[in-house]
Automatic annotation (TrEMBL):
Name the record gives this protein: Iron-uptake system permease protein FeuC
Principal place of residence: membrane
Keyword Iron: no
Cellular component, GO annotation: plasma membrane
Length: 329
């Protein structure tokens, strides 16, 4: 049985995927080679390109994490409006960095940019999600109640962060604000030995669970009748989503609407129910959006600092458009 409604839909899928791969590859090559002052192929050229490669790798990691986590989260929650950020990952990231600036000052905040702090942030974010999931497994509690608790926890952490930020000096607040903007400049190559295995491992397992996600998308009753352990499968997938979101947020910072933007585009481009095809489309779309945005802002408009703001602005507009069209959450 084909995953597409017609041969034309299959052709359209591969055509769009190939086009996005080409655009993403050109954007990545442009980031590595464009305005490189050294002759192409020289030792110094490759040294400069290697330094730029760290940023491109960070973009690929963020694209993979955000795309796959959001698509899987949409399927498990049966809602294509909400995003994994609703679980409070970004609020916890902001709270950790704000508390560091509040208790240890600017020096402590700058020195906290190390592998130990990254592991601590990932551990706390995944730990928070595991607490919520264990509560979900403890009885007859439902998924939507857990999501509501995640919203409340995120709101509480946000209020605590705002309180501490008001007590900071202007210079401390300025440094903190720069840290809280999602940017690939926050990533460091020393993080990759920890981040890459977590990202690739969780993404690979999610992809292998694509058939389970296809069944889950049919609804709890149908999935249960087909023999799927719905609750156990949902919890397993949500844990993988938590790992991906924790890695992305700890690596570069909050990217609230990136996942929603690329997932929405991937659904339109794929035109299929099969997650084996939706996942690759979402990842390639995410990488093309991020790499293309950084290339345009860095080398055309010379406004590197506003890249994440532009992505979030476009993603927020798409979110409002989808919400208004549906008329409900």
């Amino acid at each position: 049985m084909s995953s597409f409604s017609s041969p034309r839909a299959r052709y359209k899928y591969w055509l769009i995927l190939g086009t996005l791969v080409l655009l993403g590859g050109l954007s990545a090559f442009g980031l590595l080679a464009y305005q490189n002052p050294m002759p192409v192929g020289s030792e110094v050229f490759w040294r400069i390109a290697h330094r730029r490669l760290d940023a491109v790798v960070a973009m690929a990691i963020v694209a993979l994490c955000q795309a796959m986590a959001t698509v899987a989260f949409h399927t498990v929650t049966n809602n294509r409006i909400i995003t994994p950020s609703i679980m409070g990952f970004e609020s916890l990231y902001v709270a950790i960095n704000t508390a560091t600036a509040y208790f240890f000052g600017v020096t402590g905040l700058l020195e906290s940019r190390n592998l130990t702090m990254l592991i601590l942030q990932i551990s706390l974010m995944v730990g928070l999600s595991l607490i919520l999931y264990s509560w979900l497994l403890s009885g007859k509690n439902n998924l939507h109640a857990m999501l509501l608790i995640g919203i409340v926890i995120g709101g509480g952490l946000g209020s605590l962060s705002t309180f501490m930020q008001r007590l900071l000096t202007p210079s401390e607040f300025d440094v903190l604000t720069a840290r809280l903007f999602g940017s690939v400049n926050n990533a460091d190559s020393s993080y990759y030995p920890v981040v890459l295995p977590l990202c690739l491992g969780a993404a690979a397992i999610l992809y292998l669970l694509s058939r389970h996600l296809n069944v889950i998308s049919l609804g709890r009753e149908v999935a249960t009748n087909l023999g799927l352990r719905y609750r156990g499968a949902s919890i397993s997938i949500l844990i993988l989503v938590s790992v991906l979101m924790a890695v992305s947020t700890a690596l570069v910072g909050p990217m609230t609407f990136l996942g929603f933007l690329v997932a929405t585009l991937a659904y339109q481009f794929s035109d299929t129910y099969d997650h084996r095809y939706i996942f690759p489309m979402a990842f390639v779309t995410a990488f093309t959006v991020v790499a293309g945005a950084y290339f345009l802002m860095n080398h055309v408009f010379y406004a590197q600092a506003v890249v994440s703001i532009i992505i979030e602005l476009i993603g927020g507009c798409v979110f409002l458009a989808v919400l208004l069209r549906k008329g409900r959450l």
